Amino acid sequence: xxxxxxxxxxxxxxxxxxxxxxxxxxxxxxxxxxxxxxxxxxxxxxxxxxxxxxxxxxxxxxxxxxxxxxxxxxxxxxxxxxxxxxxxxxxxxxxxxxxxxxxxxxxxxxxxxxxxxxxxxxxxxxxxxxxxxxxxxxxxxxxxxxxxxxxxxxxxxxxxxxxxxxxxxxxxxxxxxxxxxxxxxxxxxxxxxxxxxxxxxxxxxxxxxxxxxxxxxxxxxxxxxxxxxxxxxxxxxxxxxxxxxxxxxxxxxxxxxxxxxxxxxxxxxxxxxxxxxxxxxxxxxxxxxxxxxxxxxxxxxxxxxxxxxxxxxxxxxxxxxxxxxxxxxxxxxxxxxxxxxxxxxxxxxxxxxxxxxxxxxxxxxxxxxxxxxxxxxxxxxxxxxxxxxxxxxxxxxxxxxxxxxxxxxxxxxxxxxxxxxxxxxxxxxx
Length: 430
Description:
Layout: H1 3-10, H2 17-29, E1 36-39, H3 46-56, E2 64-68, H4 77-82, H5 99-102, E3 107-111, H6 118-130, E4 132-134, E5 141-143, E6 147-152, H7 156-162, H8 167-173, E7 176-179, H9 190-205, H10 214-222, H11 228-242, H12 250-254, H13 287-305, H14 309-322, H15 332-340, E8 342-343, E9 346-349, E10 353-356, H16 369-380, H17 387-401, H18 406-413, H19 417-427
Parallel strand pairs: 1-6, 1-7, 2-3, 3-6
Antiparallel strand pairs: 4-5, 8-9, 9-10
Keywords: ATP-binding, DNA-binding, Nucleotide-binding, Transcription, Transcription regulation
Domain Sigma-54 factor interaction: 12-241
GO molecular function: ATP binding; sequence-specific DNA binding
């Protein structure tokens, strides 16, 4: 089957290179019985992908059973998966088939596999390896023939390291891994997917969508879409229904973008005065000022594409480093720009040091001379660092400060431990 036909048939939208690679991999594995693990953020389309794999497989005439492991209470998940016998526990008035029995001959999709309790993981391993399991309350071996597709938005390997996920089950699930990219990493797909949703809802609700301005289009592309495809679909439906026959500008669009911060624009760019990055010619001595402004400008452009997290990291880290030093360790030109700028909710005033537009900041130790020197060198480097380099530098410094304690490092950087684990895995940091 042609890739475009496949995508159209199963609703896997997008023509970016990242999506082409995903589709090619799906089409390679669909006809086999190999175990597949789908990895990606919430809303990227893991369930749609699982349905496409099943529909393309030789098992398509049999059941696809979808199980959200994170939504089943721990006390009954074993019974739900493997079934139970009459009288196995209070309330078990009849025998009952589990999901693995219902999926016999077909496919079982285990969503949020990382939320499965440890005592159930060992039983999952057995049924994955030889198709054998026991119903709750029975000593009779049951067998099933299923193809397993698992999905997670967590870092399973990190969970293995933390002891919350079995290593042998991890390797059994990791036969083929398909990573579904977040929407912000395939920006060229945003407008075409949005238009498709608009056409769908316009037909459903007998509405007319009159389009959007160039600024609104740019906002659609630059917004981070934390809810990914699910959020984009939701916004398209709201615009069709609630803004019927209206031309959409940025003001109308911003009302439906939930991921915005209390301060700053909806596209998650920090608010900086225009003159904070307008280079002025001041002769030979102005080279560093010019590079400094270029650094700020490039950082803002790259932030729009990827990182809300790095803004919080910079804010927390710079505040904890220099708030008691009068910002004197920073280059004069940087201090001048920070005095004029409002970045990510951090208002810097050279007289009062810093006041935060955040709720609270953890009390943190000052840097030693070596750490301070490294940070100043990093800020004064003539070459403009990438966002990835900035993140890696901040994460490394925070872990170094706290002797590898990830909890304290995440608090210092102002991100969750889960985000820190993801970044460590992304950059291959130990």
